[in-house]
UniProtKB/TrEMBL annotation:
Transmembrane segments: none annotated. It comes from Opisthorchis felineus. SUPFAM superfamilies: alpha/beta-Hydrolases (SSF53474). One of its GO terms (biological process) is phosphatidylserine catabolic process. GO terms for cellular component: endomembrane system. This is AB hydrolase-1 domain-containing protein.
Amino acid sequence: MQSTKLLPSACVQQIVRGSQKTQHGIQRIGLATREGEFVEGFYTDRRTSSPLPGGSNGNYLIVCCEGNGGYPEIGIPLVPLELGYSVLAWNHPGFGSSTGMPFPKQECNAMEAVLLFAIRHLKFKWNEIYLYGWSIGGYTASWAAMNYPSLGGLILDATFDDLDELARRTVPNCLYPLVLATVKQTLDLNNSAQLIAYNGPVRIIRRSDDEIISTSEPPTRASNRANVLLIKLLKHRFPNLMTVENEALLTHYLTLSAEEQVMQYKMYTRETVVASIDYTMLKT
């Protein structure tokens, strides 16, 4: 029964690989980590190709880090590919043809091998390389940004701050201390700590109705852990700006719908203008 499920999946991947190779000039590569594990990767170098949508975008390399259960053949690389960027994507340890297990150390070693390939073989400069991490792929992306600070920038899409509160949601309260200790020992994916260690450009994309990284049931914008990731970054980079009052204002703003956010912004800016006018009148 299990083999009949795996066969269609394998066929689909082969079909997708073939179509992408034809459409985007994708090359399949094999890399070795410092532990000797095999990393399956895919890339397209568009620096010398004919003009594509996006103009000079091909001069920049987007390194894509997939989410849990994601595959580069059908995942986030499709976005930068359509925009004309050079792209380098890879399969997590244990996924696709990559060997090993998707534990933090092996994940980071795989990420290291991918970046060294980009620098030494493809000859991209550090500031020409941008990292794009989706969901749990934000761990390897933020780890790389922390360890290679000259990278051009970091994009975190649907990424959480750490696993602590997400683990609490999935187990009874009586078991949480045990689960938390296990997570800290074997799966300490502290994305926020790695993120604040990077001082380069960052873009955080939050999926407003995300069910995976929200801690409430049903999921809400208020419980989305991307909120916490953003606030921790802002508090680190702008400690004087992120007062208790401003943090509370931002936290509330992040719970609103897009329409409510526009109304809140207009209300706040109108109050600011009125206050400024009153202040000017007092001065005269």
